[in-house]
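During the reporting period the student researcher (J.K.) took over the structure-prediction task from the postdoctoral fellow and processed the backlog of single-chain submissions. One of the processed entries is reproduced below for the supervisory committee.
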Amino acid sequence: TLDGSAEPRGIYHPRLGILKDRAYTGYVILKAAPGVTKIEVALQWEGGEAVAAVENPPDAFTKHPFTLTAGADCGDARLAIRCHGAGTVRVGTVSLMPADNVDGFRPDTLAALRELNSPVYRWPGGNFVSGYDWRDGIGDRDRRPPRGNPAWTGIEHNDFGTDEFIAFCREIGTTPMIAANTGFGDAYSAAQWVEYVNGPASSLAGGWRAQNGHAAAYGVKHWCVGNEMFGPWQLGFMPLHQYALKHNLVAKAMHAVDPSLVLVGVGSIGKINKDNDPEQVKRGLGWSEGMLLDCADKMDLISEHVYAGRLPWEPDTGRAPLATHVGLLRTAIRNVAEQHRAFQVGRPELKGRIVPIAMDEWNYWHREYTFGELGCAYDLADALGIAAALHEYFRQSDIIQMAHYAQTVNVIGAIKTSKTAAEMETTGLVLQMYRAHFGQTPIKIAQDFAPLDVAAALTADGKALTVAIVNPTEKNVALPLALTGIQPAGPASRWLIGGPDERAVNFPGKPRRVDIVQTDGLDAAQPLEVPARSCVLYRIPLR
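J.K. obtained the following structure tokens:
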């Protein structure tokens, strides 16, 4: 409310990052009493500002677009709304983005995501999903209700919902996978979400999708039935025998809408909630084991999560030696696979079936946060550990059929951003390199090269052999290549990820200390050279 004084009054948002000569577009939705004569929207930096004015603003909520150009580089710019005159001004929504945004996404981050080229993205999580109502994230974005983040901190504005997720996946050429809420959610809501996504426009929820501008069904096949419901930290946590009933109800309702869905059930092999589930303790069954016995016919895969590093929920034992650190995820992945085989193989209740694993969260996680909440930085040691983990996934691919690095941007992500720049993490570089160059058909390695980690695979067309080697030691190594039954057809190529030391990291806006270096024209008959503290990937054409 303005008092009619000579000085304008208003509000502002601080701590924005802007770049000189860059255009920023946005809009403000507001209404003003008749006594308000002018409203100004100002992008402010030290020593200057760019201003757009709304003269005689109407007494009804109206959208006013603007474009402002920054006059300086600034990491603490402000967007201010100033009002002149007397009376009440009500502000509904304010938006400000770089003018080169792509449907609200930063082009630098999209470019990094395209380099990752991940085949599947899982959304919306994660612990967040157990308190998420998907209906909050559809329709006019300026009318969606903001909510307190149900699992972490801050406000969830619901600007990014189902339609935006599908648009995002199409923008970067990936496949969507949606996680349904089985925490505070219910079977009806999960089934209606499937209908919104996959149902015809003639259905109730499919009609909402059509009204929101998307007449054709999205056809999302992969769905997670809940997330980490075995943990008391999870919203809606309940004992295993009760959750198994809920899983079956939700899965049945989802399949009733679309029988073609590929459903992933919540698992945690060997997990017994001794403090929260006396019935589970009495049965002596781990969480995955109980889910498989009670719900196997209502799931296509079972989820497992593994994290390693300086975990915030465990005692800080300090930094492990490089070779030990590199093996942490590899060992965890192997243990999960072996435990599932030990339980599932020959189990009469499964009638000869083996339910494959979707390792839909896995990563290193460190307690030091550099990029906001849960935003730890990853160094070269982490990158080598991620490479070793990928090798283990290939070794266990008979039973582990999906694996989702968690997460994507910031948080514990493969890409980190500042206000004005985006950069591939050391771990993201490994994912990028293997996705682009490693083969698809695993080949068994006859020899153990420990402490090196060696994996090999043929390309999809069988015309090249790829060999990847992780060297977590301080010595350069040269491995002779002994091929049986196949012959090189020409020079090899090598991609190398290394750095000056195991703690080398990349930061947005700064030169990379860890990067991918490509070398072509190598003699395929020579030993494979692997520098100290590095990961290399060789591609050898075959006759």
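The committee noted the following: The chain has ten helices and 27 strands.
J.K. will present the remaining backlog at the next meeting.
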